[in-house]
Amino acid sequence: MKKSTMVYAVAALALVSTSAMAQEIGTWSGFRKGAASFTFDDGAPSHINDVGPMFEKYGYRATFNLVVNWGPDWNGFQKLADNGHDIASHSNSHPQNMSGEESGSKQQIESKIKQEYGCIIVAYPNCNVPNSSAVLQNYIAGRICNGSWQGGSDMMGKDGPSDWAKVPAIMTGSEGSLKSTNDFTNQMQQASQKGGWVQFLTHGLSGKSNGSATYSPTDPNAIEGALQWANQHDGDIWVAPMRDVVMYIKERNASKITAGASSANSMTFTLTHNIADNVSKYNYPLSIRVKSDWSKVSATQQNKPIEATIKDGYIQFDAIPNGGDIVLTNGQGGGESPASSSAEPASSSSEAPASSSQGGWNPWNPGGNSSSGTTGLAQDLRLNTNVVADFGVFSLTGALVETFDALPENATKQFKALKIPQGVYYLKDFKANRIQKVIK
Ligand SMILES: [Zn+2]
Questions:
Q1: Looking at residues 115-143, what average pLDDT do you find?
Q2: Nearest to 138 by CA among 96, 168, 174, 105
Q3: Where are the beta strands (DSSP E) in 30-102?
Q4: What's the 101 CA to ligand 1 centre distance in angstroms?
Q5: Which residues, at least 6 apart from 13, have a Cβ–Cβ distance to it below 8 Å?
Q6: Is 113:76 a contact under the CB 8 Å cutoff?
Q7: Helix intervals (H) in 155-310
């Protein structure tokens, strides 16, 4: 009798601690229902001229698989990399089977293209899997073609393929099974219904300049329609490069979110994993949510502000694994708001907008004059992918509305694009502790 009472007590305790630690990692970024990746093979001029700008228009990024010896426009693809696209290997010589070119093509591409994670994705020419162990020593994943062509499935579940050297992608275009916008959206709809991941494999675009990518051209309007649909169903489908989705899956399955000290107005968490670091840094942000009845929240990771929102009784934010302590604070913490900073400019209209002495400081109008009427973001800005930020954008009332990082190669001029309405904001450089009024 006494024994069973103890068991009940232990069970009750476990229940209490489970509900107190109600933090979870999203299956997909932003707690979306499914994921879709668009991959483009053979390094076509149309990938630079048409595909990149089309994806950026909707806030999306794609994967471009280059054949080293076919002389791709390295400058053009570097620009895509700068904008956050994934530049990957498609071998040196496009042989029937690329065995022996696994590490060489990676090295060649990394010598030409600078990108945050390096060249960590490969797509096999002619769909033939080369030396799997050489692939996985050099890349986080290798792509085949339609899974169904090799007796598998075209659609993946939440954990990706059973073999990371055989990630499937469905062929599009005149020789493929996906030709119209509906063909694409049906697949994305299935991915979100099943909580899974679908990839598309495209070569050139019909009616565009494709260089060596002559095989199976795809109607660009079909792809643009698919992106429009995804944009309208942004809560359901996460459109991201193959690289990003692979990192997310591997990190999610290896990560633990652990609650630390908490009080009525503060919660601390650590997000850790132990993925080996030989191929990638694996510091892609994971989406986390924590049950809470707070109505306002501010958040930091390693003392840098990160975006946090409250939705349906959860605090939701993105954090980087092994990126330092995450602290959630009830209310809009004053520590990072411009109002508490000595560098705060006068809140009156006498404050000059981005001045000529700081040309390029205004991210909405890099290098230009903010009174010129330019309100759109420059094409060379890219979406925020890292949430531990170098910069914060505050509303005129001091609320943190966006955070973002400068690009390393031109940190004073290029900024990632932000999805906030036009208006007047304060931009704070957290490292330099500098604040500037900016007009979007
Ligand atoms: Zn190819």
A1: 97
A2: 105
A3: 34-41, 63-66, 86-89
A4: 14
A5: none
A6: no
A7: 181-194, 220-232, 242-254
CA of 110 to the centre of ligand 1 (A): 19
CA of 117 to the centre of ligand 1 (A): 23
Q: Which domains does the chain have, with CATH numbers?
A: 29-249 (3.20.20.370), 255-269+291-333 (no CATH), 334-440 (no CATH)
Rounded distance from Cα 38 to ligand 1 centre (Å): 15
Q: What percent of the chain has pLDDT over 90?
A: 67
Candidate from 57-61, 354-358, 361-365 with smallest mean pLDDT: 354-358
Amino acid at the residue 239: V
Question: Rounded to an integer, what distance in angstroms lies between the CA atom of residue 34 and that of residue 55?
Answer: 18
Pairing of strands 256-263, 266-272: antiparallel
Which distant-in-sequence residues (6+ apart) come within 8 Å of 5 by Cβ? Answer: none
Global confidence as pTM? 0.75
pLDDT digits (tens, 9 = 90+) for 266-312: 999 999 999 977 788 899 999 999 999 999 999 999 999 999 999 99
Could you tell me which residues come within 8 angstroms of residue 277 by beta carbon, excluding any fewer than 6 positions away?
none
